[in-house]
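Hi R.,

Here's the chain you asked about this morning:
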Amino acid sequence: LSHPSPTLTAILLEPRGWTSSPGTLGDSVLRAAGYRDAGTGHTGLEQLLAHPPDVLVTAETPRFPSLATAMLEHPALRGIPRKRFAPALLACAGPFTARAAEEIAPEHSP
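And here is the predicted structure, written out as tokens:
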């Protein structure tokens, strides 16, 4: 995907508050999708709400949620626009990782 300098910020939020950060696979996918990565490696709910990104990127909701994934669906986050991707697309880097970038790109509608 080709994008001009990104203006929208995004955080790829994973279970237990882990986020994308510079140099990670998540960071590469966000940049390929056209976002500026606002992740710092880890965040709490309060910090996320105090400094929300333009878009929150998460894996699709698991069929059997756990305490580790509970924060991803917290009602307070409903006000932040969200893009979702299939979790297998970021399990490790591969040709399929480009599909994650396509799925979360700003112009892509779920």
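One quick note: The CA atoms of residues 64 and 70 lie 11 Å apart.

Cheers,
M.
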